[in-house]
């Protein structure tokens, strides 16, 4: 199913686990078991690492729609479909997007051996007609652009980056929330003297991941720039066509910040989701525009890639030595040839738990306690080591980048409180 989704390292680990089992079976053939096993281990480590740095255009379905009613949808029950909160649902190969609300009941099958079902509110369908069949649940509650999804005033703009022209949305603040023109409408040309926000989505995502934050920024009077970055479906690819896990993409965020400054912004705040957090932090440490950043909000951020990859390997039963070998390969001189990346990835440079003392701007971390993709541990350690700058808010029961989904009122209240301190 070709649909956008959250940045999902779990998919790479799951495929790697399948390859492990297949290669291991083929290795125990003939007399060269030891040699074959060594080759199998090397192949698995390479596969694991390659999947992490390779953009995925097709994502598998993960839920099944059993029935559709006027204001309810019935799904096969599992941990994903019964999660608290509100979510987007993509069906029909990504052609149909619906918005689902809270669970309203769990149906027990009449016949023995039948499938349990969960009933959720159906809040609306934005495109197409929702019918029974396979689908994919997403934390992206909204789909489309800021106008079609949220009714917000925006312009399509282009951010010039070293890899080419990056499409972006510029969402204008609410009238009366900041400087105004003679007609009383929010100034859209230059929007001088303002602090702008630049929003950065996660791995394998698109700008739609950031839609959830735009109504709040609009109300606060903050112009919001939402750029694509290299290797997005609607953006130019990097020279290698591979992710840099934040080690390369930060240049595109720098380009977005420069666009905001050229358009009249005085300073910026940065918001990042998952790998977008790694990208934002790389920008802070490597860009000459970092001194124009007032504050940072990170949602389910990747603060230490080694912890994330170790967690995913363990979760999907990839043998720990092989998972570690794949991670080490990313930073080795063999990375170019084996993984196709532009250069070895410096995972030490992307470890912000170890680099905590280098932080210079206030950070708000929002992390779900039930995050099975990017565990909350590094966020806790970073907050413990820099209580002067880092505030961590944990969301019980929330999965990866689904803090807003499980408690949107709290998410918006806390982000608003934090931003208002630094605008």
Keywords:
alpha/beta, 31% helix, 423 residues, Rossmann fold, 12 helices, six-stranded antiparallel beta barrel, disordered N terminus, single chain, eight-stranded mixed sheet, 3 domains
Detail the topology: elements first, then pairings.
Elements: H1 9-27, H2 33-53, E1 63-68, E2 72-76, E3 87-91, E4 96-107, E5 117-127, E6 133-138, H3 146-150, E7 154-161, E8 164-171, E9 195-200, H4 214-220, E10 224-227, H5 250-262, E11 267-273, H6 275-286, E12 293-299, H7 305-315, H8 320-330, H9 335-339, E13 363-368, H10 377-385, E14 390-395, H11 403-406, H12 408-420
Parallel strand pairs: 9-10, 9-11, 11-12, 12-13, 13-14
Antiparallel strand pairs: 1-2, 1-6, 2-5, 3-4, 3-6, 4-5, 7-8, 8-10
Characterization of this structure:
With 423 residues, the chain is α/β, with parallel strands linked by helices. It folds into 3 domains: 1-57 and 309-345, no CATH class; 63-138; 146-304 and 350-420, Alpha/Beta hydrolase fold, catalytic domain (Rossmann fold), CATH 3.40.50.1820. Helix content is 31%, strand content 23%. The protein contains 12 helices and 14 strands. Strands 7-8-10-9-11-12-13-14 form an 8-stranded mixed β-sheet, sandwiched between helices. Strands 1-2-5-4-3-6 form a 6-stranded antiparallel β-barrel. β9, α4 and β10 (224-227) form a beta-alpha-beta unit. α1 crosses α7 and α5 (250-262) crosses α6. The two termini are 41 Å apart. The model is unreliable at 1-7, 10-14, 16-31 and 179-190 (pLDDT under 50).
